[in-house]
Amino acid sequence: MDAFVTRKKRKSSPTPLNDFCEDGDGDESTDFKLTLLSSLHPDLDHEALLDVLLAHEGCVSDASAALSLPQKQNITKYSKPGAQSSLRSFANPVSGDLSSPVPAKKSKLLSKKGKTLFLFDPLDIAEHTPCTVIHNFLPPEAANDLLRELLFESETYEKITFKLFDNVVSSPHTSGFYVGSEEELNDQKYEYLYNGARLSDVRRLTPRLEAVKPKVQEAVNREIQHRIATKYPGGKKLRYQCPRPWAPNAAFVNCYNGPQQNVGWHSDQLTYLGPRAVIGSLSLGVAREFRVRRVLPRTEMHPAGDSSGAKTTQNAVADEDSLRGDAEGQISIHLPHNSLLVMHAEMQEEWKHSIAPAQAIEPHPIAGNRRINVTYRDYRPEYHPSLTPKCRCGIATVMRVVQKKKENWGKNSLFFIRAATATSTSATMLVGTILMTTNNGWSLCRQVLLDVPRWKCSWQRWLFFLPMG
């Protein structure tokens, strides 16, 4: 160790750095390499150094050599916080003009069963996930002002509670809900239902949330059009995707206080957003991991003859969800401060997402160990609660996507959620069809009502949407 310390002081000699390349760095941690790299380049911040180190596969000498290049353009690129240089530049070169558009083709998913693939480059994220990421979205001072405003607001946020298997559970983080007008505020408090209950704390958009909204709207619509042109078949919107431009009119703000506050695998509720919903998510404060995974039907998880697919008890739900999470592998997206994530139209029906707990986090100079996440949403008027079908008990239903059976995969279904104070009547078998008016956004529906005990209402209906959602 003494010999190494002596060598470390000789900055003019590149020899010691060669000891920390691919053939000899297995015993040294990333933190150690970053410390060494920081001593050689003290003017660059921690995240920029980490980006360069990752781009050079952990080789300190190569990373230092790249940072020492005289070109000013390279230094500026690495100095941007939270953004990593594209790793595709280290792959096999591609001939031709990279700036010209290329025909869209289905990319092979790089994630593997039981493993997590970490993506940093926005181009890789757009290629292999249903998301796009924009780093340094707002001007730095505007992002910091919004962060300060929402940190103050978050002091009065509460955890969302809901019923799960007759147990009252609460979210692992706190949340606030914001709308643009007094009319929308009253509508949300007295008309809308979330997990079978109404929201008691609905607020008007803060001045800075209101100011940022048109910027998010413009960026999301731009990314939607780019996604359609480069990724969707025929350069057209997906079937059932909303035909009009995305127009956010509400925002959920989540506060994650510390590395252990998280949210498990889920898809967002589509009852008021409609099918093929798009969401714009702005991250502020501490950087956290946003993970996504493709949903696999049970038949793909358990091949024919595999008895492991026979679990049906409630106790097996958690185990099965974990199995489904590992079946195709997970993809981790690094979301630093001031980054905008766009969840595209295929996200909610075909993928699930989560915020993973972290072993440790690097404190943010303003937020400390807190992360603020603003999800702007477009509540469509054709899915207003006044148009939501109700079960025989008279309680509003919720729209969910059938994801577990391959023959029904991708279909939208309405399920009844029983409120805590509701009493249900006895149900009998009833099969029929209902033709609902097209201006409500629904088409021909098949109604199925199962014979169930009095205490358990299991009303269900398949939904068949119009082509334009």
From TrEMBL:
It comes from Pyricularia oryzae (strain Y34). GO terms for molecular function: dioxygenase activity. Residues 247-380 form the Fe2OG dioxygenase domain. One of its GO terms (biological process) is DNA alkylation repair. Residues 1-24 are annotated as: Disordered. Residues 1-12 have a biased composition (Basic residues). This is GRF zinc finger domain-containing protein. Coiled coil: none annotated. It holds the Pfam family 2OG-FeII_Oxy_2.
